[in-house]
Amino acid sequence: MLFTLSNTINNIYSEFFSSILILGSVSILLGLCIVNNKKNGIRGMHGKAWMFFTLSIMTWFAAETIWELSKLTQFNNILAHADVFWLIGYVFYFLFGIMYLKPFKHQISKNNIVVSSLMALMILIPVLYIIKWQSPT
Asked: Residue 115 to residues 41, 90, 110: CA-CA distances in angstroms?
């Protein structure tokens, strides 16, 4: 909401607010994940799942930091490193999802998967349309 407000007021501040929001929120989330892992440990499937979630947040935080540094220094050669960290983060996030949901596999039906996929598409299609509509041709 702050990002949208800054774009509405003046586009000059949008990059500043987006940097603060992204790095700040990821920093807070990473801190909470580390506290959660220290509290619960990595015992069992649930603990290992949360460890993978923390690793995904760590790699995304590294990617965001690399991205912000490249924007500040106008040094574009390190952007590929940020992409590697983003992709590794998705691997860890996928492993988190598998390990977290494995104990509940008997409760997840095909109907649940179809309904949740349709709900995601109902959000994704308008977002992609708005992005395409706003992008310069």
From this structure: 34, 23, 9
